[in-house]
Each structure stands twice: as C-alpha cells, then as structure tokens.
Design brief:
Layout (H helix, E strand, L loop, with lengths): L19 H6 L5 H13 L1 H8 L13 E4 L2 E4 L4 E2 L1 H5 L12 E10 L5 E7 H17 L7 E5 L4 H13 L2 E4 L6 H11 L3 E5 L2 E3 L2 E3 L1 H9 L7 E5 L3 H4 L3 H7 L5 E4 L10 H4 L4 E2 L3 E7 L7 E6 H15 L7 E4 L6 H13 L3 E5 L10 H9 L3 E4 L1 H10 L2 H4 L8 E5 L5 H11 L6 E5 L9 E2 L14 E2 L5 E4 L12 E6 L8 E2 L3 H8 L6 E10 L5 E6 L3 E4 L2 E4 H9 L4 E11 L3 E10 L7 H14 L8 E4 L13 H8 L14 H8 L4
Parallel strand pairs: 4-17, 6-7, 6-8, 8-11, 11-12, 16-17, 16-18, 18-19, 19-20, 31-32
Antiparallel strand pairs: 1-2, 3-13, 4-5, 9-10, 14-15, 15-25, 20-21, 21-22, 23-24, 24-26, 26-27, 28-29, 30-31
The structure holds 5'-O-[(S)-butoxy(hydroxy)phosphoryl]adenosine (WT7).
Length: 667
Amino acid sequence: MSEGNIFSVSKESRRFSPSDEFRAAARVKSREEYEALHRRSIDDPEGFWLEQAAQLPWFKAPTKALSWAEPHAKWFEDGVLNASVACLDRFQGTPTWQKAALIWEGEPIGNDGEPEVVTLTYAQLHARVCKLAAKLRNLGVHAGDRVAIYLGMVPEAVVAMLACARIGAVHTVVFGGFAAEALRDRIQDCGAVALITQDMSYRRGGEVKLFEAARAAASQCPTLRSVIVHLRKRENAALDDDAFARAFALEQTVVRLTSANDLPPTREHAAPAEVPAEHPLFVLYTSGSTGKPKGVLHSTAGFLLQTQLSTRYVFDLKEDDLYFCTADVGWITGHSYITYGPLQCGVTCLMFEGAPNYPKPDRLWEIVERHHATVLYTAPTAIRAFIRTGEEWPKKHDLSSLRLLGTVGEPINPEAWLWYHRVIGGERCPIVDTWWQTETGSIAITTLPGAVDAKPGSAGLPMFGYAPRIVAEDGTEVARNTGGKLILAGPWPSMLRTVWGDDERYKAQYWSEVPHVYTTGDGARQDEDGYFWIVGRIDDVLNVAGHRIGTAEVESAMVSHPAVAEAAAVGRPDDLKGQALVVFVTLKGGHEPDDAMRARLLDHVAKEIGKFARPDGLRFAAALPKTRSGKIMRRLLKDLAAGRETKGDTTTLEDLGVLAALRGAEE
Ligand code: WT7
C-alpha cells in the first residue's frame, strides 16, 4: 500500500528549554518526573488508570480498569456516570460554578467597532444544557439515539453536544463547512433521529446557509424525525412562532433551540441519564482510504478521563487560565479540546465564530489581546498563513498575556515553529506540538511543557498511556533514526471503539496491517532522545490545510458527475496548505475538456463534499497511467502534480504514451 520507503531528511537539531520560571510552576517539572509517570502508565496501565479514574464524578465507581478482547477494549466497564455531569454539575457548589465556562466572540464587527461577546458561566451553561436536554427528551429522543449537530462556531454547539450527552443520546457533529450531500450521508449512515442546526452562520464576512443545506439533507433522511433550529440572525430571532413555523417548514417537526416561551425544564426532564462507562458518547466522521467516511465511535468514561488528563497536563492549566483553541467544533479537536477536556478542568474557554484573518489579518491577535488569552492552541496551516501576511499584524497587539502555545493537525515545519515562538510567543512561551488523531481521541505525542525541551518540528514524547513505536513493513521494530510506520501498542482509554456500523472495517483498517497493534497510517521516525518526528500520512489520505481528506472520497465525488469517466486525486506539496489537492480526470465521450468543464467539475466536488475539499488543480487527461492489472499509478501522478521528473520504475505501466500525454496537460 505505501509507496517507496519512508525516510526523514529533517536535520533540525535546535532545542528549546522551558524557562526556569515556567518550569517551577509546571505540573511536571522534569524529564525524569515525566518518565516516571509515563513508565507507570505503560508498565501498570490498569493500576494507573483505575487510580486516575477517581478524577471522574461517578454515580457508581468502577472496580475494574480494562477488559481487552483484541481489538475491542472496555474500560471501567462496571462504572456508571454522565459526561455532562463531568463537565458541569461536578462544579455545583464550588467557586467554578460562577466562573466563565465559555467566552464567545462573534465574527461581525458592530457599528460601534466591537464584536458581539457572550459569556456563559458554568451555571449558565448548565442551565442551557438542561433546557435543551429536556427539549430533546420531549421530542422523543432516547438514550442511544443519534443526534446530528450541524452548526457554526457558536456556544450552542457546545450546549448541543452536552445536552445529547446528558440524555445519553449519541451526537454526531457535522462540520458546518460540509455540503448538504455530505450531511445527508452522515445522517443516513448513523440513522440520526434529530438534527440541531442553525439558520445561517457568519464566515469571512459572508453567510453560510446552514439551514438550506439542512433542509436539502433532511428531505432525504427518513430516520430524521425532528429538527431544532438555532436562530443566529437577529432578524430571524425576532420571528414569532407562526412566522418561524412558516419560515422553517420541513416535513420533520421543527422547533427553535431557545424560545422566550420555553418553560424551565422540570427536574425529571433535565436529569442526567446514568449511563455505563462504555455507553457511546459520539460518532465523528473522518476520512479514510476508501470513498466512504468512517464514523469513529467514542465511548464515555475512557474518552472523558484521557481528555481531562491531557488537557490539564499538556496545557499545564491553572485556575486563572484563559484557554483559546481555534479549532472548529466539527473536528475532533473541537470535541476533545474545546468541549470535553477544558470543561472537565473547570477552565475558561475562548471560542471564536469566524475566520482568523477577518476582517483584517490581525483578528486573532486582536482577540488574544481583548480577552487576555493565556494559552493558544492552533494549527500549522494557520501559522503559515500569518507568516505570509507579515509580522506587522501581530506586532500591533499586546500578546503578553500568552504563556503557552500549542499546535496540532500536521507536522509543523521548523521555520513556522520558530516564527510562532518568536513573534507570537515573544520567546517566552513554550510550544507544545501535539500529535494525535480523531481515532486516538486524545493527545498521544507531545512535548510536555515545563518537563521536556522542545525540538522544532518534532511532535515530542509519548503521553501517559500511549506506547508509540516505529516498525518496518514486516512489523518488526526499526532502529532509532530509521523511518517506518507509526503504530500504537495496546489499548488506551480514549481510543475509538469501532467504526459505526462496520466493525469489520475497524478491524481491517486499524488492527490488521501489523498484528496486535494499532496502525496509525502515519510514517515517522524516533530520534536518539526518544522524540518522534512525524513525516505524514502513508495511506491515501491527504492533509490539506489541516483537513483530513481521503483521495478516494474526492474521486468518488468526481466520478459522480455524469461527464466524468475516471478520476485520480493526489497531493502536491504546498507552502501554505501543507498539501494541495490535484485531480486528474478523464471525460466520457462527447464532453469537452475546457475551462467551463473544469469549473463545473470543481464546483461539483465542492457541492458534494464542501468547499474546503475543492481541488486546487484539475488536469484533464485522455487516459490515466495504469498497471497491467488496471491499478492507477498514483506515484507517477504525484510526481507530475508536483512538477517533478517522474522517477522510479515505469516498467509496469501499461501504456507509456499515456504519461507523455499527461506531461503536456495544464491545470
Ligand atoms: C492526522 C490525524 C488530531 C487533531 C487534528 C487532526 C496529522 C495531527 C499532528 C502533529 C504531525 C499531525 C497526522 C494524523 N497530525 N497532528 N502534531 N504533527 N502530524 O485530526 O483529522 O484525525 O488527522 O493528522 O497525519 O494521522 P485528524
């Protein structure tokens, strides 16, 4: 499956130690201390995790840590709890209850030059969650039912997740950038009975018409019985109930998320469901190497415990921190490190609705300054975009409140790391790189701040409970500084439990390639100090501007267009996006490969999947290079897309003329 050997050419040797001041106040203060904790979590996982489990507010505490019937894990099986209680109710009667849980900033700037800011204390967030939980129950949503959430970056997204968790319903958040078709496929795949959406959301000065997409999707989803609409737009919020019903007419029952007439929920209706530890918490769809997105299933206790632990340690959280994560709630980072991790820690989380560079390239820095953010967690692709617009933009702002920076999503190139460190962190903030996946649920590799040095470009050392290793094609462990496949040995509490509705795919994708270990799909090397250096994906999955996109998904969207005979999608290195998406297309007879067709096909992919998956380049070809057995030779297409000489073996190519013709093709 992987093409060629995985090797790493990075020779980065700079290291950055935390300041004595940071170290003195850090939760873990030295590499020795880190290693002792990590070793214990690996040598005695059951003892370690059962002890840690005391951090969760149980209705009934577990007596047992793990049952492992490879590849199925059950953690804390006889424990009983509720995720919304772990994030909210646990603080009732403590000072945290009156502290801000969320500070949200809207994208539009008002006439007074100020954006809308909403602050919700833990008590207020709890009240909203109870209200929505009661509403869901009234609509007949039961524990175990799936509820789709298709919202922008609004506090209601967090409210919706926690309300589902409160009644034991399984949420599936669909990124607001996805199109109607992608939303429909996800609702259908998990058989959601309710959908929580909004009229529209603001993004980069424009309006994202979420409800229109929701309407189109809902009409093709027979399992969907009710739709709850959050009214974001002021004009809509003023609708009376009749006007609302007319405006949002759907076959399904439609109700507004909050309305003035809402009665306070009764104690019974808002009561948290007492669910077993392994009760499913959410399904989150992610790209794999086949065309169909995978519904990654996470369960309750293990996910909660490991997100809580990692949030506290990796971001070194303190009582007065203002934690700002720029990820979208539609991705795993928004689940683990906006919602479940930080709220369990009782921290104040800053949430921003819009694009980090709208209306000006310094919007993010303006936000950091306005709210005095202390921890910032963002993605390398965003950092590269900031580098491009110039350091004069962050320089306009006082960023001295920041004390820790984080990155996630793809390998960070050392130059971007150094810029982030100097320009944003004022050379005073440690940077935590964090490697993990939708499937791991929590951060697996990182540079624990205060405890260990950072090496720009390296993801760092294993988090508690994780045992990463580098193995060769045949599954044997390789020597230090040798590239190979990154695997994780043994189960950990926040790991995915299965692929929704497709346990065979779960086994095949993650637990078959190398016997008895979890395959990540990434290539990496481990250096002489034990630090991991991630090279990138080795399967047919691209990482475009931090979005994980399966090439097969793009191809199947492309060939669903009636003019297309065949398509092959590949990645090309890109300064800004990390990888750019290039598609080679052959048309059916009677269709012209002209610019109009190119635009139609690009639009078609954007319509099927979402704008973020719109290919960066499209080349028409008379034929695609294939092996004699008919397999498309992507290796050659990748070289072509990158403008490289096509190296390597072409002897298996069926028709050499195809390659010559492709070289002449333009994007
Ligand atoms: C893939 C997982 C985990 C939240 C965001 C993405 C890549 C992620 C890093 C990092 C190098 C990284 C990997 C991984 N990745 N973080 N710090 N350094 N690569 O979640 O969509 O599930 O994607 O993102 O290739 O397998 P995801």
